[in-house]
């Protein structure tokens, strides 16, 4: 098993400190998230089952970023990810009450499945170990959405990466493949293993 750089409480504190720093000085907060990501290790053991997720920061474009941050401050249907390690795949968990919105935004998508009494799962992905898109000197868990069935103009253009920052705590980067051909790191998220 890899040595986790931080204890679970310390990891939560460092993630929280970077979130606070984002409010005081955006660039320093983003740098803190990046430093924490680079200090992480390849997840060991492989992720299995449900993980609670939190969108920590977005960094898309000058005008778009504040709009997305404002929206996600009161509306965040995404609740985490579900991993199936043996099959190297998984999907995302959402609040069930937003099923209508997913259907509205992606009317031809047929991959929504109920999960428990208040959740649903959607937008499948494949996982693999790879070098980071930006952090090419780091091994990361790559979470790739480029699969048939996912919406082609949006979801299939996303690749997430995750590293372990403590036992059961993971920090992720979100990358988007723009239509003109370039990749951009557009945000950070955390995952925490659910009991």
In the sheet with the most strands, the strands line up as: 1-2-3-5-6-7-8-9
What is the terminal separation in angstroms?
A: 20 Å
SSE ordering: HHEHEEHEEEEEE
Low-confidence stretches: 1-6
The radius of gyration computed from the alpha-carbon positions, rounded to a whole number of angstroms, is 16 Å
Portion of residues in beta strands equals 35-45%
The main β sheet shows up as:
8 strands, antiparallel, barrel
Shape: globular
Helix count? 4
Total beta strands: 9
Mean pLDDT: 91
Overall tally of domains: 1
| Range of helix content | 25-40%
SS class? alpha+beta
Q: How does this model look, in words?
A:
The chain is an alpha+beta fold and 195 residues long. The chain has one domain. It contains 4 helices and 9 strands, in the order ααβαββαββββββ. An 8-stranded antiparallel barrel has the order 1-2-3-5-6-7-8-9. It is globular, with a radius of gyration of 16 Å. The protein starts with 7 loop residues before the first helix and ends with a strand.
């Amino acid at each position: 098993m890899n040595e986790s750089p931080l204890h679970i409480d310390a990891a939560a504190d460092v993630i929280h400190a970077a979130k606070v720093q984002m409010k005081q000085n955006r660039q320093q907060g983003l740098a803190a998230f990046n430093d924490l990501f680079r200090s992480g290790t390849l997840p060991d053991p492989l992720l299995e089952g449900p993980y609670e997720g939190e969108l920590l920061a977005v960094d898309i474009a000058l005008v778009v970023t504040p709009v997305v941050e404002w929206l996600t401050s009161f509306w965040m249907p995404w609740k985490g990810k579900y991993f199936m390690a043996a099959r190297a795949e998984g999907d995302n968990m959402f609040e069930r009450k937003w099923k209508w919105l997913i259907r509205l935004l992606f009317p031809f998508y047929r991959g929504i499945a109920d999960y428990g009494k208040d959740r649903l799962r959607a937008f499948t992905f494949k996982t693999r170990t790879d070098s980071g898109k930006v952090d090419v000197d780091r091994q990361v868990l790559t979470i790739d959405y480029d699969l048939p069935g996912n919406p082609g103009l949006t979801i299939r253009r996303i690749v997430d990466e995750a590293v372990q920052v403590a036992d059961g705590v993971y920090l992720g980067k979100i990358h988007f493949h723009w239509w003109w051909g370039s990749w951009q790191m557009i945000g950070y998220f955390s995952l925490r293993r659910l009991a």
